[in-house]
Amino acid sequence: MKNTIIAILFLTVTGAVLLWSACKDNSKKPAVLSQNKTAYSTIQLPQDALSTCTIPQDTFNTWFLTGKATENGHVTPANSITFGHQNNCDFYQWSERMFLWVTSPNTGEYGSTGRVLESPVFYTVAPDTSGGMTLIKHLPGTILPVVPALKKNGPNRLPLFSDRKGHLFEVWFHKAGEKVLVKNSSGKIIELGPVGKDAKGIILLKDKQGVAIEKPQFVTKLTNPKNVIHAFATSNGNVFFDMNGNQVETELAQATQDALMAQNGSLVYYITFVNDMYAYFLAAVQAKYMSGYQFPTTLSGRDSIMAYAKQQGYSLPPDSNALAIELKTSWIIADSLSDASGFVTIDAIIPTYNTSSPSEWPVTGQQQVKLALVGMHVVGSVAGHPEMIWATFEHNSNTPNASYQYIDSNKIVQTVPADKGNWLFNSNTSLPADSFNNPHMTADSVNTLFAEAPYTTISASNTLRLFPFGAAFNLVPNQQDTSASASNTEVISINNNIMGMIPGNDIRKNYVFIGATWTNSGTAPNGNVYSSDPSKGSAIGTSLLANSTMETYLQGTAFSCFTCHNNNNSLAPGALSHIFDSINPVKNILKKMK
Question: Residue 412 contacts by C-beta under 8 Å, 6 or more apart in sequence?
Fold first, then answer.
């Protein structure tokens, strides 16, 4: 297929889709504030790290289609059905192989140009005219979407906010006239009336007759209701209450629609992909051919998907043993870099903005550019783990690391100081600690960009990777490693091992494996992390995992991928993948794509 992804922005609140013509409009400006092209610092992994997670060269050779590791060679996907899941290193090896696969140059069944994630084996997840989501297959001439911000909703699919202390909340914005139930001090359930003030100006929750409710408690079926803030609009702005009806007097910063800008002035753009096995499984569940109680993890599950695909006349996937895969990717404008040859790139159509105002940029049109990959989540179901493995990778010039520890080849713990230098997402590493990871801008539902208080201009923030390999000082990250240094060493070790076996100047060597997380024995995630809750449903592996281009402002010792990707201790696909239940029926769409 042609190595061009044409991507557009979906702009309407009502769900209508604007498809701009593909004609290039030079009068519009792409979202690049400056052309400050420069060479950037890169992550320097300790080369003397103890080799606690490695694979032999002979085994690594089998990952390649030709049976031998070659520069820019095509890597085949890991077999998720026979996945060993005996120790952390098994998960890290799976992660590395899957990343190398999806970024491999296409060949054979995948096509002759581009990379696997651009091939017909993958679909782009995009909004459709109904307000839901749809799948777009990668065929020549297909228009694919990018967005300038990621929605990061919580387990109840409500927007996430954080307070100044870093505590994370979901916020339920109740609409005027919405039926809201509360329980009073005697246990009676009462419908809430309009939120108002008493004679002293204190905000009270009242019933429909205007009588104040004594010790009200919100009645909901939400996951972790103590972490949900209830918001009501008043003439003086929104007011917030906790689950017990106490007014919350705090400044909340939205974490769900923050936009990110590189120091060279390029906005960060996002694309979500799923593979054909994910798409066919979704179709089979929607058709009630499969139960869909969890993502496929077994040979019988794979065979059921393949049987459904064959029955429907779909193209049988070459990657069926990979099972269900979801990718979340982040990109910047390649032309904003002094040298983009060290990045995986695609061609895309991105929005242009009216940048005349420093604090508000409305979308004005579109422009074709080349995008450079800066981050990727690789998420996939494997044997024994229907909660999926959640792995992340970043370009080595993205973001400086905070200080961390590892174990050297002499089994001595070494402390690496925080990185210095000039980075793609940090231009001043000498700033005070509270100057990092502060959002400067947000996007609304039509992707207009706004400066975010207290900042008054749309601009780049300085990002710091707080937990370089998903583990924090003095906290035990998982059931296998007794320290953060031991956990970090495993991730450093597999990075050094894999990079050392990839020949030549393969650009995939420029991407660092940050880590991966999952739960013990494939238990349904409870949203907690191992260091604070060692029960089976808590995140293990590199349990404080974050990608600095996607979870930039959601880094903390209580946060993991499963902080958001959980719901009522369920393994249902829609409880784990935020897109699964949002994708409209795909059966007829897939039929048109065979």
Answer: none
Q: Report the distance separating Cα 396 and Cα 388, nearest Å.
A: 25
Beta strands in 223-291 (DSSP E): 228-234, 237-241, 253-254, 258-259, 269-275
Count the Cβ atoms, other than its own, within 10 Å of residue 173: 14
Token duo for residue 71: 């520069």
pLDDT of residue 298: 97
Cα 225 to Cα 42: distance, rounded to the nearest angstrom = 42
- Please tell me the number of Cα atoms within 13 Å of 177 on its side-chain side: 0
Q: Tokens 């003095």, residue? A: 474
Summarize pLDDT for 332-345 with one digit per residue, the tens.
999 999 999 999 99
Helix axes 484-501, 88-102, angle to 10 degrees: 40
**pLDDT of the residue at 2:** 40
Q: Is 101 exposed, middle or buried (0-12, 13-18, 19+ CB in 10 A)?
A: buried
Q: Please, is 274 exposed, middle or buried when counting C-beta atoms within 10 Å of its C-beta (0-12, 13-18, 19+)? A: buried
SS3 track for 499-547: HHHCCCCCHHHHEEEEEEEEEHHHCCCCCCECCCCCCCCCEEECCCCCC
Can you give the length of the chain in residues?
Answer: 594
In DSSP terms, 162 is beta-bridged to: 168, 253
Helix/strand/coil (H, E, C) string of 383-451? Answer: CCEEEEEEEEEEECCCCCECCEEEEECCCCEEEECCCCCCECCECCCCCCHHHCCCCCEEECCCCCEEE
What amino acid occupies position 421?
A: G
In whole angstroms, give the CA distance from residue 239 to residue 237: 7
102-106 LR contacts (CB < 8 Å, sep 24+): 102/325, 102/327, 102/376, 102/378, 103/344, 103/373, 103/376, 103/508, 103/511, 104/73, 104/74, 104/75, 105/72, 105/73, 105/74, 106/1, 106/74
* Residue the block writes with tokens 């387990």: 155
Encoded tokens for 46: 């300790």
Radius of gyration, alpha carbons of the chain:
24
Supply 520's token pair. 């013990």
Task: For the chain, list residues with pLDDT below 50.
Answer: 1-28, 253-255
Pairing status of strand 228-234 against strand 168-174 = parallel
CA atoms within 13 A on the CB side of 193: 12
Look at residue 220 in the predicted model and tell me its pLDDT.
83
Peptide bond into 454 cis (omega under 30): yes
**d(Cα 541, Cα 554) in Å, to the nearest integer?**
18
Kindly list the distances between the CA atom of residue 371 and the CA atoms of 43, 329, 346, 348, in Å, as whole numbers in the listed order. Answer: 22, 11, 5, 7
Q: At what angle do helices 276-286 and 299-312 cross, to 10 degrees?
A: 80
553 class by beta-carbon count within 10 Å (0-12 exposed, 13-18 middle, 19+ buried)? buried
Pairing of strands 203-204, 143-145: unpaired
**In 175-248, at which residue ranges do the beta strands (DSSP E only) sit?**
181-183, 189-191, 196-197, 203-204, 217-218, 228-234, 237-241
Return the pLDDT at 553: 85
Distance between alpha carbon 379 and the CA centroid of its chain, in Å? 9
**Which among 388, 397, 126, 365 is positioned nearest to 264, based on CA atoms?**
397
